[in-house]
Design brief:
Elements: H1 3-24, E1 49-55, E2 60-66, E3 69-72, E4 78-79, H2 82-93, E5 96-100, H3 108-111, E6 124-130, E7 135-146, E8 154-159, E9 166-171, E10 186-189, E11 195-201, E12 207-211, E13 221-222, H4 234-245, E14 246-248, E15 251-254, E16 266-272, E17 276-285, E18 288-297, H5 307-314, H6 325-332, H7 343-357, E19 360-364, H8 366-372
Antiparallel strand pairs: 1-2, 1-6, 2-3, 3-4, 5-9, 6-7, 7-8, 8-9, 10-14, 11-12, 11-16, 12-13, 15-19, 16-17, 17-18, 18-19
Organism: Candidatus Nitronereus thalassa
Region (Disordered): 307-348
Domain DUF4340: 70-253
Length: 383
Amino acid sequence: MTTKSLTILGGLAIVLIGVALLLSQPDTSGQSKAGQYLFPGLMEKINEVSELSVKTQAETITIARTGESWIVKEKHDYPANMEKLREAVVGLGELKILEAKTKKPELYDKLGLEDVEAEGSFSTGLTLKDAAGAIMAEAIVGKQEPSKGSLGQDEVYVRKPGDPQTWLAIGKFSVEKVPSEWLDKDFLEVEPKRVRQVTIKHQDNTKLVLKKERPDDQDFTVVNLPKGKEVQSQFAVNNIVATVTSLGLEDVKPASEVSFDEKAVVTALFQTFDGLEGNVKLFRKDEKDYVKVSAVFNADLIWKPKPEEESQSEKPENEENAKASEIEKREAEKPKPPKIKPEGDVKTEIETINKKVADWVYVIPKFRADTILKKPEDLIKKS
């Protein structure tokens, strides 16, 4: 390396060190605020928040309160994920100042704190409003990383719009920048242990039937497995049931905006031991997997133990059956079968499901759709 090169590199190092010092050196005028809330008094009024807006260069996301619920305006007013809302709103209210940072606008980009509208900006703007539309808190959020000194908390650079002062703050704080990530994603959740049968019917009339005989059975069997064949993986069989009954969305659209071609639809019917019958329709179009869901009550599905099973379960332990105590102990250690829900509870559950899903078509992840689309031959052990 030449002397000239060393001189150039040395000069560059000095410049970089200078920038680092400017960023790292606290503004002593703000040192007295260390340990204080970034937004004093916000937590006392946190229940008055009625709107959160998240603004990036790409888009604005608005999560708003409607009565007792919260919705994502940019996603057709679909229900919001309350946990993520709490993490953002309460997280902002609980942010505490660690130290003051630069006031120089030319250094904001080093912290990710330039104005959201500035060219090439990666900052995020957050605004909390009350029911009257008055701003309760407003912040520009920049770079963030886990705190080295406080487990479970993050250190984040922030500043308030119109105020040149930047801050390094700490707290349990998280904010999503993609509209679909604010959605309440779990739109169908039925415990797989409650299920007695799943029947998947394909466009070519091929069927896959998975079944359990008793609620305390741990695994499902493939009823229509080709003669002389066995399954490759019991996990794969059980996973189909778990997927059909516990769906999560990637996106959502009003039912009026998506037309299903019934000739291209795959249906998955699942039935529980306590009378719930759910119907999932899957339609693959334009590299997206759309589903519609509905549920009804079917009293014929309710499982009733045989008389001898009831009498055995009620038989008291005495000296004659003492020898069986060890067996009973081992049985007691097995996973408990699902409790058969009362008819009234199941009907209420069905009403809740239908109310939630009636007006919507859901886009589900491809890996979930691929699981539902499996046929008997896909589960056979290869010879």
